[in-house]
C-alpha cells in the first residue's frame, strides 16, 4: 500500500505554472498537493538549505544494495514539495531505482533511464509486473543520446503525458566510482571537462522532456584530483543554468554516516588531509531548478 506523507489527497493536475489554485477550503499550487491553508501541518517538509540525515532509510522497499545511490529521504522531500499525486518523475541516471521505489510509495509514477541492461534487469525485480506496466517504466539507453529521448517520449505517450513533471539527475561524481566499462558511462570520461560536456547533454535531454514551469533536482558532490578540488557541483549547476533552467535552491547535505566502510578509513583520511592541506568531503549538493 502506498504511503502518504500528509493527510491530503488531490486529483492530479496535468498543467503546471506558478499560479495558486483556489478550491473549497484548500489553497494549493499547480506543482504540489500542499494545502497552504494548513501550512503549519507540513513541518516535515524541509525548507532550509542545510539537510542533516543521521542514516539512510532502509524500509518501504529501499535497501543499500548498490554503491553510489542517493538516500530515499531526498526523493521524499522533492516529491512532496515539487510534485502532485500521479505526476511522472523522469530519472536520467536510474541506477538501483530509488526514484522509482519512492514514486510508488508516494503515488507518483516514474520513467527511469539506465545505461546497463543487467542493472535494469535486476531493478525490475523490485517492482510488481503491474507496476512495471502502469507506474514504472525502465529504459536501457544512453541518457546523452537521441535514442533515449525518443524512448522516453514513447513511454510518456503510453502514460498519457506529453512531458514529465519532475526531473531527477544523480550522475556519477566524475570518475570517483567506476560504474561500468562502457565508453558512454560518465564515470569513464577521459577528463573532467569531458564529464561536464556529457552531463550537459543529459541535462539538455532532461530539459526538453520536462514540462514547462516544473522542477528538476541535481544531486552531486565534488571531487579531489591532481592536488586540487574539482568543483563538480557548481560546474554542473552552471551548465544547467546555461541550458535554460532557473536555479531555485542550493542545499548542502551531510553525507557522514551514509557511506559504506567510511569509519574504517577515517583516521587515514584525516592524516592525509593534515599532510596535504585539503579538507575531507562530508557534504554533497542538492540543486533545485525550474524550467521557465
Can you put this structure into words, describing what you see?
This protein has 292 residues and is of the alpha/beta class. Helices cover 31% and strands 23% of the residues. The strands form 3 sheets. It has an 8-stranded mixed sheet, with helices on both faces. A two-stranded antiparallel ribbon has the order 1-2.
The whole-number mean of residue pLDDT values reads: 87
In what range is the share of β-strand residues? 15-25%
Q: Please summarize the sheet with the most strands.
A: 8 strands, mixed
In angstroms, what separates the terminal alpha carbons?
Answer: 35 Å
Secondary-structure element pattern, one letter each: EEEHEHEHHEHEHEEEHEHE
Low-pLDDT stretches: 1-18
Number of strands: 12
What shape does the CA trace take?
globular
Number of helices: 8
Task: Report helical residue fraction.
Answer: 25-40%
Strand order of the largest sheet: 3-11-12-8-7-4-5-6
Q: What structural class is derived from the secondary structure elements? A: alpha/beta
Concise description?
This protein is of the alpha/beta class.
Give the key terms.
single chain, 292 residues, alpha/beta, eight-stranded mixed beta sheet, two-stranded antiparallel ribbon, 8 helices, 31% helix, disordered N terminus
What secondary-structure arrangement, pairings included, does this model have?
Elements: E1 20-23, E2 26-29, E3 50-51, H1 72-82, E4 88-91, H2 98-105, E5 109-114, H3 117-124, H4 129-134, E6 136-140, H5 146-158, E7 164-169, H6 192-209, E8 210-220, E9 223-225, E10 228-230, H7 232-243, E11 245-254, H8 262-276, E12 283-291
Parallel strand pairs: 3-11, 4-5, 4-7, 5-6, 7-8
Antiparallel strand pairs: 1-2, 8-12, 9-10, 11-12
Amino acid at each position: 500500500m502506498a504511503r502518504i506523507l500528509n493527510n491530503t489527497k488531490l486529483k492530479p493536475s496535468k498543467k503546471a505554472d506558478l499560479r495558486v489554485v483556489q478550491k473549497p477550503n484548500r489553497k494549493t499550487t499547480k506543482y504540489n498537493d500542499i494545502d497552504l491553508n494548513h501550512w503549519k501541518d507540513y513541518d516535515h517538509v524541509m525548507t532550509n538549505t542545510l539537510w542533516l540525515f543521521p542514516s539512510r532509510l532502509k524500509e518501504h522497499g529501499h535497501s543499500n544494495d548498490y554503491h553510489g545511490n542517493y538516500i530515499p529521504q531526498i526523493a521524499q522531500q522533492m516529491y512532496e514539495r515539487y510534485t502532485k499525486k500521479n505526476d511522472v518523475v523522469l530519472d536520467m541516471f536510474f541506477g538501483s531505482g530509488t526514484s522509482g521505489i519512492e514514486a510508488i510509495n508516494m503515488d507518483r509514477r516514474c520513467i527511469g533511464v539506465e545505461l546497463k541492461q543487467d542493472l535494469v534487469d535486476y531493478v525490475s525485480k523490485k517492482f510488481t509486473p503491474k507496476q512495471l506496466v502502469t507506474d514504472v517504466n525502465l529504459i536501457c539507453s544512453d541518457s546523452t543520446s537521441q535514442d533515449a529521448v525518443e524512448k522516453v517520449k514513447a513511454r510518456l505517450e503510453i502514460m498519457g503525458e506529453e512531458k514529465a513533471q519532475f526531473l531527477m539527475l544523480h550522475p556519477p561524481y566524475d570518475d570517483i566510482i567506476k560504474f561500468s566499462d562502457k565508453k558512454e558511462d560518465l564515470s569513464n570520461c577521459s577528463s573532467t571537462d569531458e564529464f561536464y560536456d556529457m552531463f550537459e547533454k543529459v541535462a539538455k535531454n532532461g530539459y526538453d522532456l520536462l514540462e514547462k514551469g516544473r522542477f528538476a533536482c541535481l544531486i552531486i558532490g565534488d571531487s579531489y584530483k591532481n592536488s586540487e578540488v574539482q568543483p563538480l557541483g557548481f560546474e554542473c549547476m552552471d551548465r544547467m543554468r546555461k541550458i535554460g533552467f532557473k536555479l531555485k535552491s542550493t542545499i548542502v547535505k551531510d553525507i557522514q554516516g551514509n557511506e559504506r566502510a567510511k569509519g574504517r578509513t577515517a583516521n587515514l583520511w584525516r592524516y592525509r588531509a593534515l599532510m596535504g592541506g585539503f579538507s575531507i568531503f562530508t557534504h554533497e549538493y542538492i540543486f533545485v531548478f525550474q524550467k521557465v
